[in-house]
Amino acid sequence: MLGAELFYEGVDDYRPVYHELYDRMMDKGVIIQGTNGGHTLRFLPDYLIVKKDIDLAVGKLEEALGEVGD
C-alpha cells in the first residue's frame, strides 16, 4: 500500500477535491481510494507490480492533479 497526502493552500475540506480527483482518475483508468476526509490518497497496487505500471499511475495522477479545479 502507498499513501500520498493532498495539500492545497487554503483548503480545509478535502472531500470535494478528492471526489473530483477520483472521477478524473477513474476516467484515466486508475483507481484511487481516499481516507482521512479525502486528504490522503491510498494506492493498492498488485503485489507483483512493475515499474511501467507505477510510472503510468504517477503520470495519470500528475495529469489529474493539474486538472482539478478547472
- Mean pLDDT comes to 91
Q: Percent range for helical residues?
A: 40-55%
Q: H/E series, N to C?
A: EHEEH
Physical arrangement of strands within the biggest beta sheet: 1-3-2
- The best one-word shape is globular
Radius of gyration: 12 Å
The oligomerization state is single chain
- Summarize the biggest pleated sheet: 3 strands, antiparallel
Beta-strand fraction estimate? 15-25%
Structural class by SSE content: alpha+beta
Distance between the termini: 29 Å
Which features does this protein show?
about 45% helix; about 70 residues; single chain; alpha+beta
Describe this structure in words.
This protein has 70 residues and is α+β, with helices and mostly antiparallel strands. 43% of the residues lie in helices and 16% in strands. It has helices spanning 15-27, 51-67, and strands at 2-5, 33-35, 40-43. The chain has a 3-stranded antiparallel β-sheet, with no helix packed on it. The protein is globular and about 35 Å long. The mean pLDDT is 91.
Indicate the topology.
Blueprint: E1 2-5, H1 15-27, E2 33-35, E3 40-43, H2 51-67
Antiparallel strand pairs: 1-3, 2-3
